[in-house]
Amino acid sequence: MSSYASPTPSSLFDRVHGTPSSVSSYNVNAPSHTAVPLPYAGQGSRDSLLYICIIIHEIGCCYIVPNLHYLLSNTCPNALKFNTAFPFHASTCLPPNLNPAVSELAISPPVQVFRLRISAANLVFDVTNPRGVLVADILNAIFSYLQNSLSRDVYGSLPSHVREATDRAYQHRLQKASGRRIQGINERLAFVDCLGERIHFHSLTYSPSHGVWDVMLF
After folding, report:
1. Burial code of 29-59, b = ≥16 C-beta within 10 A, e = fewer?
2. What percent of the chain has pLDDT over 90?
3. CB neighbours (10 Å) of residue 197?
4. HSE (CB half, 13 Å, CA atoms) of 129?
5. Is 178 a residue whose pLDDT tops 60?
6. What is the DSSP letter of 151?
7. Where do the structural domains in the chain lie, given as residue ranges?
8. DSSP states along 192-216
9. Which listed residue, 104, 139, 156, 180, has the most CB atoms within 10 A of its CB?
10. Helices (H), the chain
């Protein structure tokens, strides 16, 4: 039985957005969502999921990956203290010396398209910036896509204990946003609620077999 009773589920769901099997595009200049079908793991060939969206040089079986910004790297984990349930500017406290760093390039040499994957929410999406993707672009996109509403079908497909955890996370998110007067969050059930307590950004890890950067959360 779900842990919350009000508001009713029918008032929480967006029947249009929220399909997890999609690749979307986050453009810093025009952040519209354009979904493209993406097969689930096990469907189709592995090549159908392969999309190299950053500059990679393949030498035999070795991959040389460009340098990731230290704020996004596991060499400097938790430096951001970013709670992905809330907008980056409202949920992150950076020391003064790190404030300019979020406006730096996410990767060097710069790229215009950066593909991210959040496996726990079954989300894959592109972050684009014609001048080169920045650290802030990455963080804003993570928040934006985790705010996508859950469809009724997705919620109904979750095991009962996961739905209960999702409900608790949803309640906590709204209460915290209200208490801190945080604006810009989705007031419906969202993908971020499915993550439970694992909503804090840790780092990005590259997956060469699929050409994506995995968002590591804790």
Report:
1. eeeeeeeeebeeeeeeeeeebeeebbeeeee
2. 50
3. 11
4. 20
5. yes
6. P
7. 18-217
8. GGGGTT--BEEEEEEETTTTEEEEE
9. 139
10. 88-91, 135-146, 152-157, 160-179
Phi, psi of 37 (to 5 degrees): -55, 140
> Residue type for 217, please?
L
Summarize pLDDT for 7-33 with one digit per residue, the tens.
333 334 333 333 333 445 545 544 333
Q: Walk across the sheet containing 212-217 and list its strands.
A: 36-37, 22-27, 123-128, 113-118, 212-217, 201-207
Report helix, strand or coil for 170.
helix
Burial code of 93-105, b = ≥16 C-beta within 10 A, e = fewer? Answer: ebeeeeeebbeeb
- 179 or 34: whose pLDDT is higher? 179
Distance, CA of 140 to CA of 95 (rounded, Å): 19
**The two structure tokens encoding residue 54:** 């950053």
Do strands 113-118 and 212-217 pair parallel, antiparallel, or not at all (unpaired)? parallel
Cα distance between residue 136 and residue 89, in whole Å: 9
